[in-house]
């Protein structure tokens, strides 16, 4: 995406995500096309989601997976808490009946 979230916006979205459960779980096969399709659909419906990442050997690998997830889904970084990634993508105008998250 063209912009980054401000620290205030990330904090706001992290608070909203606290009560959410992961809607997508990345398996041992890693970030496959089907995972990206599931993430894209979940973002289209919810805007803010949690994704559970697989166990990896180091924090650097986990951050690399998170970076790839962000790039592949064209979403914005909110937080990476252990193995749970929180990502946000503003909803398009294709679902006008669903409320949109209003960022501060």
Summarize the structure.
This protein is an alpha+beta fold and 104 residues long. It has 3 helices and 4 strands.
The multimeric state of the shown protein is single chain
Q: Total number of β-strand segments?
A: 4
The first-to-last residue Cα distance is 19 Å
Task: Please report the number of helical segments.
Answer: 3
Q: Uncertain regions: pLDDT < 50 for 5+ in a row?
A: none
Number of domains: 1
CATH superfamily: YhbY-like
Mean pLDDT: 90
Q: What CATH architecture label applies?
A: 2-Layer Sandwich
Helicity range of the residues? 25-40%
CATH class: Alpha Beta
**Spatial extent as radius of gyration:** 13 Å
> What structural class results from the helix and strand content?
alpha+beta
Basic shape: globular
Strand order of the largest sheet: 1-2-4-3
Strand content: 15-25%
Elements, N to C (H/E): HEHEHEE
Classify the fold: give the CATH topology: Translation Initiation Factor IF3
Largest sheet: 4 strands, mixed
